[in-house]
Amino acid sequence: MYKAPVEEIAFTLNHVAGLGHAMEHAIFGDLSADVVEAILSEAGRFAGEEVEPLAEAGDRQGAKLVDGKVVLPDGWERLYRDWISGGWNGLTGPEEFGGQGLPHMLNIATLEMWNSASMAFGLAPTLTMGAVEALRAHGSEDLKKTYLAKLVSGEWTGTMNLTEPHAGSDVGALRSRAERRDDGTYRIFGQKIFITWGDHEATDNIIHLVLARLPDAPAGTRGISLFLVPKFLVNADGSLGARNDYFAHSLEHKLGIHGSPTCTLIFGDGKYGSEKGAIGWLVGEENKGLACMFTMMNNARLAVGIQGVAIAEAATQKAIAYARERTQGRAPGTAATGMSPIIEHPDVARMLLTMKSLTQGSRAICYACAEAIDMSHRDPQKAKHWQERAALLTPVAKSFSTDAGVDVASLGIQVHGGMGFIEETGAARLLRDARIAPIYEGTNGIQAIDLVTRKLTIANGDHMRGFIAELRGIADAVAQSNLKGFGETAPRLRSAIDDLEKAGEWLLSRQADGALAEALAGATPYQRLFGLVLTGSYLAKGGLADAADGEGAKRIALCRFAAENLLAETAALADRVSAGASSLDAARIALA
Is 441 a catalytic residue? Predict the structure, then answer.
């Protein structure tokens, strides 16, 4: 059974991300360590005692479409209502609409717990919170007044409607259309696929944010508008009115996250209402909907990254517990008689340490990204710096962490051996659930393009250069410390940072010379290189912060393992980054 690592989460928030420092300087008002501990502890209890026990049944039963209605797995409607009763959906919501206005770092930490317990369940609030951000930033006052309070509380859920069968990630190719009406509303027509929690009966209403094109819109992404389309229309007094003209045509039969209803939605075919067309309201300005939707997508990308962390944590816990109990053979060097627990075998220990390193490293990356988002709103004197840092870290948090979730879940199956391939152990479900995360909210290849072309180039590369200087400071601190157990961490970390710097400067130079294709051929290796360097740096930062015996010694040992094992990959990755030209030439020949 999953048990939320509350102490590790709190440590990472306080000592690797900057929550502890921020509270000391009252950046979050009267937020205190006691309040943070209480929130994390109760979230951990709810995740472990309420959510996790329904995860297996949710996977086995899945969401179903029955007589035109989406039916959630047994107990999930009650679970969701209990969850919103605890106030979890509004943790960081705007206070003027009933939210608690707490730091984003805390929300990301609790999202980790919900997704570790059941990723399929944790997807519902992820999209709702993103809808809150988009509506808050771009919605009219009337839309905010009508919808925000219910979305903040979680009484109504929200969705994001981008993808269409023919378009995939090419949003500019969408065909859904919108028609103006004299009363200021619009009629929406079209089909959307892969809509997470697109329909269900757990809430009284569902608020869809839908991208569509007006008849006179420019071609491509410049001609996309964003519309709010509720399942039920809302009367002037706030009560629910008629059913809007859309419906769930089918549910996707997925590899994993079976409990999450992933819908194909049809808008405007006349199934409901006296006139064809789903009634919608414009969010933001006409033909500028993609910028509005990106507010929601950026929120979702970090949340997807934390799903990777969540799966990695659950898989690591399961694998360590199994390795301690499963006996097989005799471990080399043991004096004990009989079979040894497999955790004592060197290769199993290596796999488990790799799992722990990737889990804790990707957690730190995501929390550091959340810190940057928080500080961009709370530190006006350095707002630009923090905005740039959040922008730089977001694609890495999404991509590296979701790749880590898949890798760690796969290693978890390997630790279990043949039993890992059997569904009853639960290890296979984690891998099946994890596999979607590198794909949605912008595939990890798209994240690499974003990182190299838009984020690495911020201030002509100067923000990244400043960040590298910060990372060198961590390596220097390790070298100067007199703490035992760091081994070769400092030189290995310094070498890895050199690799990151060399690869980044090469990418910047190729783009400056107009060789964009060569730069993009090295984008994905660069993204992994960046994530590994951050993993080594943040594990070292944690080891320096907690030098006491016990947990401190464990953190330093894990840091040393990551530096001496995982960071050995960075030199090869740097070489792969600069091999872009030859890889393009090879592709033209080999794939012809």
Answer: yes
pTM: predicted TM-score of the whole model, two decimal places: 0.96
> Which residue type sits at 245?
D
Tell me: the pLDDT tens digits for 410-462? 999 999 999 999 999 999 999 999 999 999 988 999 999 999 999 999 999 99
CA distances from 73 to 49, 403, 570 (A): 17, 28, 44
Nearest in space to 561 (alpha carbons), one of 353, 343, 404: 353
d(CA 488, CA 535): 16
Alpha-helical segments (H) within 286-345: 289-325
CA 201 centroid distance within chain: 25
C-alpha 551: how far from its chain's center?
A: 27
Compute the distance between CA of residue 303 and CA of residue 293 in angstroms, rounded to an integer.
15
Closest CA to 311 of 195, 420, 426, 424: 426
**Residues across the chain:** 592
Kind and range of the H or E element at 110? helix 104-117
Of the residues 52, 371, 441, 501, only one is catalytic, namely 441
287, with CB counted inside 10 A (0-12, 13-18, 19+), is middle
Determine the straight-line distance between the first and last CA of the chain, rounded to whole angstroms.
50
Q: Is 250 helix (H, G, I), strand (E, B) or coil?
A: strand
